[in-house]
Amino acid sequence: MPPRFDVVDVDRQLPVAGPCDTEIAALRHDFIWGVSTSSFQIEGATREDGRGPSVWDTYGWQGRITNGDTGDVACDHYHRYPEDIDLMRQLGVQAYRFSVAWPRVFPSGRGALNAPGVAFYDRLIDALLEANIEPWLCLYHWDFPQALDDLGGWTNRDSVQWFSDYAASVAASFGDRVKRFATFNEPSIFTLFGLGFGGERATSSADRLHRAIHNINLAHGAAVDVLRARVAGSSIGVIHNVQPCIPSTPADAAAAERCDAYWNKAFPDPQYLGVYPEPVRSAVEPYIQPGDLTRICRPLDWFGVNHYSPVFAKADGDAVTGFNFGDRPPGLPETPNGWPIMPDSFRETLVSVASRYSHPVYVLENGLGGYDKPDQRGAVSDPERIDYLRKYIGAMNAAARDGADIRGYFVWSLLDNLEWEAGYDVRFGLTYVDYLTQRRIPKASFEWYRNVIQAAHHR
Q1: Does position 200 have pLDDT exceeding 90, yes or no?
Q2: What is the pLDDT of residues 381-430, one digit of tens each?
Q3: pTM for this one?
Q4: Is the pLDDT of residue 15 over 70?
Q5: Mean pLDDT throughout 439-447?
Q6: Which candidate in 186, 285, 334, 447 is catalytic?
Q7: What phi and psi values does residue 261 have, to the nearest 5 degrees?
């Protein structure tokens, strides 16, 4: 066990005001406040205790992540989870959304269960419950086992059974203590970025994308059935990245509609409504077998929303999907990492999702990416993040006032972490991580969010 690192006592920092009462007044009194992370982005220990490689390990080892970064150490959460849970306790969150690394519990994606990997999540879950923090477990946050990817990954219909078997083992291992489950995080993102964008309009590229979309939907439905059967009192949902698709120019209106179909509806529509939206429906039809849509559309308890900003779309006749990223209007406010800040689009998203899918909504990711650094005193001030969170929580409150059934909000993220292709440069955490020493420093936004939670509890 590595030596413990310092956790800054946030009680010693100067108080930071939270939002005024009117910005949370419409939220439910049993509203859940939480934080989110994902396994590959924080755990590290990629070669320890029998863990197998994931596709993102391979991607990093090939030098394809910014600065040659990898997930080998990341935030070392695998060893330092007690300190991270202590941060959550100081923050006052009621829930923690994390993901299980499929290749940590099944090094080859299937076959023999890896007992040390299971034991890590046992320790994590038990420590969360001891701290009175509810574990929200996501089965899949992008770290697909490399051994199964070598067999075709999500383009292979056998992936439905692979995922179902994995879900069954997770349910058997943790279902006595975990009741909140998500099957997938952002399936549209890992399919579009993995198989859609950059792919030419060729039969092979289109085949791989649309075959994967359908197989992932089938895997979702199979996992729901497994969890429902094996976990008494389970509460099951799925997490979608919902970003309004705006035409880059008036001529791009059709492209924006295609963007909306692929980005926002290709997965939730069949999962909640039992149908694919056009034009996805026509493209997926060759892969649909009798009874598939019933297998996909299984009873769910809630809808998870991840949201950061809108997408500006343009027509691209050479792309598999028929659209690509377009220019945005000049003068839009942006986050430090270049994403538009448009809180009202968040309000519109929540109202639309709650109406279209008629399920309780939990916001399971929202936050700001920056380039935070400690000052000479060692403190980390992040006023832009506080301003962003204030505006977006206010927009969520407005959506609730407009009738959206919103029941929780989770900030992305508890910790600075490996932000996929951006590596460690971009920081989304409420807590600064010094990657050389693994020291955690709660930022000003940490205390701001703590004040929000305390204010909500005392309404």
Answers
A1: no
A2: 999 999 999 999 999 999 999 999 999 999 999 999 999 999 999 999 99
A3: 0.95
A4: no
A5: 98
A6: 186
A7: -65, -45
Amino acid at 150: D
Q: What is the tens place of the pLDDT at every residue in 330-352?
A: 999 999 999 999 999 999 999 99
What is the per-residue pLDDT for 19? Answer: 72
Alpha-carbon distance of 15 to 87, in angstroms, equals 17
Catalytically annotated residue among 48, 83, 334, 365: 365
In SS3 terms, the chain reads as CCCCCCECCHHHCCCCCCCCHHHCCCCCCCCEEEEECCHHHHCCCCCCCCCCCEHHHHHHHCCCCHHHCCCCCCCCHHHHHHHHHHHHHHHCCCEEEEECCHHHHCCCCCCCCCHHHHHHHHHHHHHHHHCCCEEEEEEECCCCEHHHHCCCHHHCCCHHHHHHHHHHHHHHHHCCCCCEEEEEECHHHHHHHHHHCCCECCHHHHHHHHHHHHHHHHHHHHHHHHHHHHCCCCEEEEEEECCCEEECCHHHHHHHHHHHHHHHHCCHHHHHHCCCCCCHHHHHHHHCCCCHHHHHCCCCCCEEEECCCCEEEEECCCECCCEEECCCCCCCCECCCCCECCHHHHHHHHHHHHHHHCCCEEEEECCCCECCCCCCCCCCCCHHHHHHHHHHHHHHHHHHHCCCCEEEEEEECCECCCCHHHCCCCECCCEEEECCCCEEEECHHHHHHHHHHHHHHCC
Kindly give the pairing relationship between strand 323-325 and strand 311-315.
Answer: antiparallel
Rounded Cα distance between 412 and 395, Å, is 17
Average pLDDT of the residues in 4-29: 63
pLDDT exceeds cutoff 60 at 372: yes
Q: Are 146 and 55 in contact (CB under 8 A)?
A: yes
Let me know if 384 is a catalytic residue: no
348 is catalytic: no
Cβ-contact 421, 65 below 8 angstroms: yes
pLDDT greater than 70 at residue 204: no
| Single-letter residue type at 386 | I
| Structural domains of the chain, ranges and CATH numbers in brackets | 10-457 (3.20.20.80)
Residue-wise over 160-197: b if at least 16 C-beta within 10 A, else e? bebbbbbbbbbbebbbeebbbbbbbbbbbbbbbebbbe
CA–CA gap between residue 346 and residue 241 (Å, rounded)? 12
